[in-house]
Amino acid sequence: MTHPSPRQFLLTPPQDLEAARAFGLPLALMAWQLDGQGRLTQAPLPPQAQGGLMLVGANQPIQEGADPRRAAQEILAQCRSRACAGVILDLEQPPSPFLAQLIRLVEEGLAQRQGTLFLPERYANFSHRASLYLTSAISGGSLRRRLEEVIAQYGARRLVLCLRRAREDFFLPATKGVGHPISQEELNRLRRRLEPSVFFSPHLCARYFTYMSRETGAHFVLFDDRETLEKKRTLALELGIRRFFLLYPEIADLWEVPSQEG
């Protein structure tokens, strides 16, 4: 069975722009943030940074009285000037009247030029048209069942799977399902020191191993590699999801740069 070709975007910080371009994927520039006053701030970007998607982060509370109309105008102006095909609102704050109005205004502005708005899945109730993104990194349950439930609710055509690279160390019993994020270097050191037996979880679609520490007791380490991310992407394609976000430089050592042979 053949699957439709995936549409993939490489979410990229400004400082990694040149290196990320070598992968040949359309970029989503992670160069904008909303500050506490609801004003748009931008990291330095070269003039040639054009096209792809525009990612706007909101990782701090917006003060009461901030103007969502002004914020939307600033976002849409940047989107036009950079010739971006859409806007990702990376909303890490709980829903608020400011964000609700911002979503509506940005969506209306993008619709006038056939652009796409991308929202976190938990903001689905704020728009009936926006594309919704969710993470591939889960620590419990079944990824297949999770995707099937979201597809049943919103439809596969509306979804984007963010292929996040899971790397977490859980203290057991992990009753809250939340582990401590570790770097690839930490993971490599653990594996060299412990030489653990590594297993694959078909439900989580990720690899794992366990170990004991004299100080902190039992641990469960969950992680992704290239093969598990490919399995997650294949699963999503089988279920009808065709769009994916990848994070740079998180995947830099997993995805191959295309050959330049002519």
What is the compact description of this entry?
This protein is of the alpha/beta class and 262 residues long. It has 6 helices and 14 strands.
Helix content: 25-40%
Strand order of the largest sheet: 1-2-4-5-6-7-8-14
The biggest beta sheet reads:
8 strands, parallel, barrel
SSE pattern: EHEEEHEHEEHEEEHEEEHE
Mean pLDDT: 93
Rg is 20 Å
- Compute the number of helices: 6
What's the shape? Answer: globular
Low-confidence parts lasting 5 or more residues at pLDDT below 50? none
| Derived structural class | alpha/beta
What is the strand content?
25-35%
End-to-end separation in angstroms reads 31 Å
The protein's oligomeric status is single chain
Number of strands: 14
What would your notes on this structure say?
- With 262 residues, this protein is an alpha/beta fold.
- Helices cover 27% and strands 28% of the residues.
- It contains 6 helices and 14 strands.
- It has helices spanning 17-21, 68-81, 97-111, 143-154, 184-194, 226-238; strands at residues 7-12, 27-34, 40-42, 53-58, 86-91, 116-120, 131-135, 159-162, 167-171, 180-181, 199-201, 206-213, 217-223, 243-247.
- The strands form 2 sheets. It has an 8-stranded parallel β-barrel.
- β9 (167-171) and β10 (180-181) form a beta hairpin.
- 31% of the residues are buried.
